[in-house]
Amino acid sequence: MMNKIIDLRSDTVTHPTLKMREAMMNAEVGDDCYGEDPTVQRLETLAAEKVGKEASMYVPTGTMGNTTAILAHTHAGEHAIMDIECHIYYYENGAMSSVGGIMPIVVDSSDGCPNADVVEPYLQRSPTRYPKTSLICLENTHNRRGGRAIGLDRMGAICELARRYGVSVHLDGARIFNAALALGVEVKEVAAHVDSVMFCLSKGLCAPVGSMLAGDADFIQKARLARRQLGGGMRQSGVLAAAGIVSLTEMTDRLIEDHDNAKLLAKALLQFDQLDLRREDFHTNMVFLNTEPLGISAEDFAERAAQHNIRVSVYGPTTVRLVTNHDASREDVLYAAEVLVDLIRSILNRAV
Ligand code: TLP
């Protein structure tokens, strides 16, 4: 058994690279609440350029980025429409409601991008008799939909509808660089039709901390007030932003390795017809596995994998998620695949 623990729970487990640590040590800093941190300013300019927006703001987490966006786009008592499996609804502890007074309308769509014909009736409702719907939230790549990269045609359709009704669109693009890579387009194109986009530096891009929220200058001004309300105004945050600059300048192209490794992992698992996996479902750096055909819970599967030093995350009673990342090399992933294949084989053999 390999001594090293191969951690495939998430790409959030990645450690900052040596270059990041050096950049952090040498970062020029100032009090960012006075607008005086040159490293944060460099990061914000660079991030805005990358996604083709006027301005951007550095936030400690993706969750805070999404919440500040919702606060800046809406008023208490309004509705926001989103996919039922999206991170904002599923994982963010109701921040939009508890902090922003926003009521989510959740819709179900197999690829995670709300369908225009399902959304339109909400936008047509009488403003005097119903709450106003002021925001649509999208997610790309879509985490709980298998790390799926949602096509630009799908995003375009919902953005066009939103524009027709004067409704804003926010994109949770935590993994927007993975999406662009999988779709074979520029990151700017993925963000082109949305009003705001949040993306994370701390996932596959390996920064220790931090996400960016981008949009037009007026929107980012409002978002800065919302960030302060949430306690997200930071001081000499250039120390952290320095790592984010390395993320954006040196780490985006390498995400292809994560995608390739996920495909290797998926390929090994595809041999089990019982698992009902489909090659076309592996878009980016995630592999989801249903443990039901194995007759065991996801919890049980994760425990057995951990006994072999492979860490996976439990995503539901019978759903396991594996995420390839910078800290698990191709060899590590091939080894993990071998272990998991053996494990699944032994479970299936015992079941007959
Ligand atoms: N996702 C984490 C967990 O919270 C599930 C993970 O391991 O994938 N949007 C999306 C699509 C995300 O996947 C995440 C984190 C976030 C937002 C929030 O980012 P952070 O953790 O920085 O608040």
Describe this structure in words.
The protein has helices spanning 18-26, 38-51, 62-73, 87-90, 95-98, 116-123, 152-164, 176-183, 187-191, 217-229, 238-250, 255-270, 298-307, 330-351, and strands at 6-7, 55-59, 79-83, 103-107, 133-139, 168-172, 196-200, 211-215, 286-290, 310-311, 313-316, 319-323. The protein is built from 14 helices and twelve strands. 43% of the residues lie in helices and 16% in strands. It has two domains: 6-13 and 254-351, Aspartate Aminotransferase, domain 1 (Alpha-Beta Complex), CATH 3.90.1150; 31-251, Type I PLP-dependent aspartate aminotransferase-like (Major domain) (Aspartate Aminotransferase, domain 2), CATH 3.40.640. The strands form three sheets. Strands 2-8-7-6-5-3-4 form a seven-stranded mixed beta sheet, sandwiched between helices. Ligand TLP binds next to helix 3.
Short key terms for the protein model shown above:
352 residues, alpha/beta, Aspartate Aminotransferase, domain 1, 2 domains, 7-stranded mixed sheet, 3-stranded antiparallel sheet, 14 helices, binds ligand TLP
